[in-house]
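Usage example:
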Amino acid sequence: MAIYNLDGLLDQYDGEFLVLEFNHLFISSTIREEVWLLQRRNDSSLISKIMQAAREFDIHEVSGDRDFETYSGGQKAILACLLTLALIDDRKIHGLKLLLNNILDSISEENRSILIQKFNEACSTSDIKFFTEKDGHVQEII
Amino acid sequence: MQIPKGKYRLEKRDLNFDIVDDLNFNNSGSCFYLRGGNGFGKTSFLEEIIIPALRTDNLSFLYIGQDIRTQLYTLRALLSIQGYKVSNTDEVELLRLWIHHSQSASVLILDEFDKYFPDYGFIFDWSDAFIRTYIIVTHLGMDGCEAVAKNHRISNARFELINIDGRLKNVRVKNE
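Running the assembly step on the lines above writes:
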């Protein structure tokens, strides 16, 4: 049994999926830095969009410059999903398969419903597919 | 160990807890589940209220935290220093070894461990002989928890957001 086998996860899935893993959600320390790295500019409108979406999950104290380590584990997982969804929308990405590993189980039932609704919207507009993985089995969540 | 009802302020985490019921962790063979929304302070409650109270009562405890990545590195190093050959040992076996060699502990704390293993009954199998109280943060439904902890007396505490005053969150904690 494995709890946290990142190498194994990537060996098995990174050719086919974009993997979001609970223990490796971000490269940097803040939403602004993360957006800088991904967009190569200070994309304020993307940051605002992520912050606005975060408030739907009761993350009212969200800010582009707040250190990720000051959010709770579940809040970080939500922010990583919102960042990914915002980028998918901004870059008009189509056909992506996103694998969520240990993400949904770290989120409260109420927030999980809101997040899955957002995934649903992305499915219909961008032909994105979302999956989870447990014990070597991948399952589409929508 | 008991956390008396009352108001608790965690200034550095911008949290105020209003604990409306005494939280009693003394019952042997019990599982105490903490539930509530994301960011309502469950982990802070563990680290800033429960763990200090355990230390005050001189109760030895094990804590498997939410960010298991760092902890697994630390466990591997700790067990190596203690003379165990663990370079090729998988993570579950690392945990088993650590728990097996920690039998002075009477409390085991799990923070969302069920996201890795929704059926984490093996943790009870490994530790039932010496752990009196399990304190578990979860987002699983009550049915799921009852199925896993079927041989334990279950209590639940719910964290509810009362309001937010600037950055400060006021959270109610009550038995369920």
